Amino acid sequence: MRILGWLIIFFICFVSGGATCTPRTAPIPFPPPPVVLNTAPSLEQITNVVNRTQGIRQLSTNSATVKMVSMPSLPRLNATVNLEREKNFRLRASLPIVMGPGMDMGSNAEVFWFEVPEGISKTLYYARHDQYRQQLERAILPVDPSWLMDALGLVQIDPSNVDAGPVQRSDGRYEISSMISMPDGVYHRICFIEPNAGYVTDQYLYSPLGRLIAESHASNHAYYEQYQCALPHVVEIKLSPNVGPPLEMRIEVGAYTVNQLLSGDPNLFAIPTSASNMVDLTTLSGNPDGGIQPQPSNPVTYSAQAESGYPMRGLKR
C-alpha cells in the first residue's frame, strides 16, 4: 500500500505541474473561447478543431494545486514541471516534512520514473513504456502516463480510429468513440466535445473487457489565441485499478507557459542515477483477475445514457 501511495502521488504530479499547501479559493472563470463549430459539424470538422492542440509541443506551469479527493488527509503539493511531446517530462516536487524532503519524477521516449525518499536513502521506481503497456490489465495503475497528459488538454482524435460518432447528446455536447490498439487488446476511448468551441470536456477509457478504467473531466478552459485552442485549468481524474478503491484527484492550474521549457538543464529528461534502490514497476502488479467483470454486450440506449451523464456505448456514426 505504501508503494501504491507513492504511485498515486506520482501520477497526480505527472499531469498537474505542481501544487501548494496554502488554501485556494475557487478558480476565476476565463472568458469563453470563440465559437468555431457550426450546427451539426462533421467528424472531420470536429477533429480538426480538437487537434489544434498539436501546435502545443511544450507545456509548463509552477502555479497549480492538486487535491487528492480519495485521500482527503493528503496535503497539497508544491512543484515545478516541464512537459514536451511526445514523452518528455520532468517534475521536482517539495513535500511536507513528514513525508520526506522531496521527489524527482520524469519520463523520456524509453522510460518513466519517480524517485522518492525512504528513510535515509532514495528509491527509484521506473518502467519502460513498451513493457508497461504489455501488462496494463495487471498493472497497479490502469493507464499509461501518456493518457494523463491527454487529460490536461492535449488529447488528439485520429479520424481513422473513430468507430462511432459524432452524436449530439441531450446536453448539447458531441460524443465520439475511438479504438485504441494496445498489446493486450483494443481499448475504447469516448470523448465529449463542447459544441461551440470544440474542446474535449470529458474522456472515458474502457479496457478490452469493457471495464471503465479511467475518466477525466475538464473545465474552466482558457483560450490561447496564438494556438487557436483552449486548455483546461481545472481537471478531475478518476482511475479504477483492478484491486483497491478508485483513485480520484482534482487539479487546478493558475497559469501555463506554452512552447517553452522553464529549465536550462541539458539533462532535463535523463533518468537520475543517484538512488541506492531501484524497483521495476513491471514487477509490481495486482491480481490478474482482480474482480474484473466484462460489461454486458447489449448497448445501452442513447436516451438512458444521456440522462445518466455517462457515455453511450452503442452509438452509431
Folded structure, characterized:
It is globular, with a radius of gyration of 19 Å. It contains five helices and 16 strands. β5 (103-107) and β6 (111-118) form a beta hairpin. The chain has a single domain (2-284), classed as outer membrane lipoprotein receptor (LolB), chain A. The chain has an eight-stranded mixed beta sheet with strand order 15-1-3-4-5-6-7-16. α1 packs parallel to α4. By secondary structure, it is mostly beta strands.
Low-confidence stretches: 13-23, 287-308
- How many structural domains are formed by the residues? 1
- CATH topology label: outer membrane lipoprotein receptor (LolB), chain A
Gross morphology: globular
- Mean pLDDT across the residues is 77
CATH homologous superfamily assignment: Lipoprotein localisation LolA/LolB/LppX
Q: Could you say what the CATH architecture is?
A: Clam
Share in β-strands: 35-45%
Radius of gyration: 19 Å
- Biggest beta-sheet profile: 8 strands, mixed
Number of strands: 16
Distance from first to last alpha carbon:
43 Å
- The helical percent reads 10-25%
Structural class: mainly beta
- Provide the CATH top-level class: Mainly Beta
Spatial ordering of strands, largest sheet: 15-1-3-4-5-6-7-16
In sequence order, what are the helices and strands, one letter per element?
A: HHEEEEEEEHHEEEEEEEEEH
The helix count comes to: 5
Summed up, what is this model?
This protein has 317 residues and is mainly β. The chain has five helices and 16 strands.
Topology:
Layout: H1 2-16, H2 43-50, E1 58-61, E2 64-68, E3 78-84, E4 88-94, E5 103-107, E6 111-118, E7 121-128, H3 129-133, H4 145-154, E8 162-168, E9 174-182, E10 185-193, E11 200-206, E12 212-224, E13 229-239, E14 247-253, E15 257-258, E16 277-280, H5 302-308
Parallel strand pairs: 7-16
Antiparallel strand pairs: 1-3, 1-15, 2-14, 3-4, 4-5, 5-6, 6-7, 8-9, 9-10, 10-11, 11-12, 12-13, 13-14
